[in-house]
Every structure is written in C-alpha cells, then in structure tokens.
Amino acid sequence: MAESDGQERTEDATPRRLQQAREKGQVARSKELASVSVLVIGSVALMWFGESLARGLFNVMGRLFTLSRDEVFDPYKLLDIVSGALVHILLPMLMILVTLFVAALVGAAGLGGISFSAQAAMPKLSKMNPLSGLKRMVGMQSWVELIKSILKVALVAGMAFYLIDASKQDLFQLSMDVYPQNIFHALDILLNFILLISCSLLIVVGIDIPFQIWQHANQLKMTKQEVKDEYKDTEGKPEVKGRIRMLQREAAQRRMMADVPQADVIVTNPEHFSVALRYKQDTDKAPIVVAKGVDHIALKIREVAREHDIYVIPAPPLARALYHSTELEQEIPDGLFTAVAQVLAYVFQLKQYRKRGGDRPKLQASNLPIPPDLRK
Question: Cys-Cys with 269: which of 107, 281, 317, 319 at CB 3.0–4.6 Å?
C-alpha cells in the first residue's frame, strides 16, 4: 500500500523492485565520482602528454612568428604552414581527449554500472511542479549538496594555500630560470598543483558514494503490504497455487494409474498402503516402483490391479518400507532386494499353481528380511 495508508517503508527492496527501478533508470549515481575521476585522470594525462603538447605548441608559435612576407600573402602556402604546424599538437591532444573520454565513462559507470533507459529520458510534468521544486530545495539532498560544496571549497582552498606555501622556493626560482626552461618548469609545478588539488577531492567522493547508495536503497524501500502484494503477483495467490497443486496431483495420479497394468505385483498393507512393482528381466536391472499410494489411492490401485488380474500380496512391513523409501519410476533400495525377490518368486509360484495345480505356495509376509533402517 502507499504511504497514505499509514504504513511506513521499512522493508528493503526486493530483487524485482530493484530490477524495475533499474529499467526505469533509477540507479545509484555519484556526480562527484564522475567529476573527480575526470579531474584526476585528466591531470595524469596532462602529465603524460603535456610536455609533448607544450613542445608542439612552442614549435607552432615559433613557426607562425617567423613567417616571411611571401608566406603571409600566399594563402596556399600559409595553409600548408598552418597544417604542418598543427600536426605537432594533434597526437598529444588526441591522446588527452581519449583519456578524458575513458575517465568520464568509467567515472559515470563506476557506481550503478551502465544503464540505458528510454523511460528515464521521457519528460515528466511532475518535475515542473513548483511545490516539488521547493521540497527538493529544503530536503536532505539539498543539505547534503550544500555540505559537499562547502567541503569542496575548503579542500581546494586549503590544498592550494598549502601547495603555494610549500613551493615558494620553486616559484621564486622561475624568475631566475633560462627561457624556455622556465616555461616547462612552471608547467610542471602547475600540473602537480592540479593533480594534488584534484586528489584532495577524493575525500568528497568517499563521503558521497556511501550516501548515494544509502539514499537509493532508502528511496526504494517498501511497505510490508507492498512486499505481500508483489509476492502474490509473482508467486500467485495461495488459493490459486493450491488449486494448481491439486490439479497437478490429479494429473500425476492419472498417469500413475495408467501405469498400474504394467505391474507384476501389488504389495499392500491391507488397510493403508499399496505399492505396484514391475520387473522385466530383459529391460529392468531391479524391480521398479510404477505406482504407490495411501488410503483411497491405495484402494484405487488395488481395484485397477484386480481388473487386470495382477496379484495383490498383503505384506504390511514390506509395503510400508517400499512406500517410504522409494520414488516413482525408480528402482527399489538394495536393502529390499531379497524381500521383493521372495515376493516375486511367490507370485511366480502362484502362476504355476494356477496352471498345474498341486500344493498352494505360502508366503510368510511377517518374516520377510527387511533391514531395521528401512522399517517404518
């Protein structure tokens, strides 16, 4: 239910809720991580390729300031000179731009991963509501942004003052250096300043990432009723699930009853259990359970067996052991081989007795060898 129903959002978001939020583009994002990653990696890129870029610019400016009169008034020659000069700065500039692009991509996807959502890009009239804007201005997010801004200013200013104070000797040395070494020295100092100041902002990133994760999880929290409703939607209502299970049981019972005519013997506890066994010497390595059941299902198995002239043998201990230790279409346990073999031999003797007569065979059902661990 919604918050208007008086329920608090105290439950963590379910996997389905998280997936739906991701499809809508609602993932945890840190703008500080994206911006600081560009600053830090961009500073490193400048340190790697900055000298090549500076030398390229130095060569370009040197060539353009030494143009002859003929070159200045010849557009084609001037274009060739400019093109040739720009070649010196093209490669370092391209490497810096590629590095910045990768840094921006990694920083943006560092928290929340890569997610494309057309729904998130759609315009929403609710964002144009002045009341919603006022709520955002005085909400927790605004206070956090204000604190981060103050912290960033303090870090940048503090690190800058510290670096200037620590580098006074190098800065004074610039006026005494020989041109153009003083230019490159100044660039080295400037790049070190940029890198260290950018790295100081990692403190803000360390604060912002846990906050964004917490805020995202808090925004997706659900009420107890919403969790119940989602469970019903995904798993189905209990009444429907019960009906489905009942239909599945009925279908399984019909299939099982259709296999009873294949059985060679039905082992029963006359009041409760019935287990139908099949043993084909050519195909079965051991007797197979084709049907089993209790109470009215057991009675139905016996009725089908009598209709198909299948022997029904009362052997209560063996029937209980077979029922509790076997699965349909599976072989009987090794411990029951001897007992079942005696029952099958008894059935064979009964068939011979019907054909030829003589003494009627007997089976001591209570004395069948059943291991203690299989007795039920």
Answer: 319
Could you tell me which residues are beta bridge partners of residue 305?
none
Q: Give the HSE-up count for residue 71: Cα atoms under 13 Å, Cβ half-sphere.
A: 11
Q: What is the torsion angle, in degrees rounded to the nearest 10, for the CA atoms of residue 59, residue 65, residue 66 and residue 71?
A: 110
pLDDT digits (tens, 9 = 90+) for 223-258: 888 877 777 766 656 666 667 677 767 776 777 788
Dist. CA 75–CA 82, nearest whole Å:
10
Q: Are 32 and 213 in contact (CB under 8 A)?
A: no
Strands 265-268 and 288-294, by their bridges, are unpaired
* Among 358, 290, 297, CA closest to 329: 290
Alpha carbons 140 and 298: distance in angstroms, whole number: 68
With b meaning 16 or more CB within 10 Å and e meaning fewer, what string describes 144-159?
Answer: eeeebeeebeebeeeb
pTM of the model: 0.52
Q: Are 333 and 326 in contact (CB under 8 A)?
A: yes
Give the contacts of 338 (CB within 8 A, at least 6 positions apart). 369
Buried-exposed string 114-135: b where 16+ CB fall within 10 A, e elsewhere: eeeeeeeeeeeeeeeeeeeeee
Distance CA(208)–CA(216), nearest Å, equals 12
Interval 311-328 mean pLDDT? 86
Element (H, E) at 374: none
Taking only the tens place, the pLDDT of each residue in 284-317 is 888 888 888 888 888 888 888 888 888 888 888 8
Residue type, 357: G
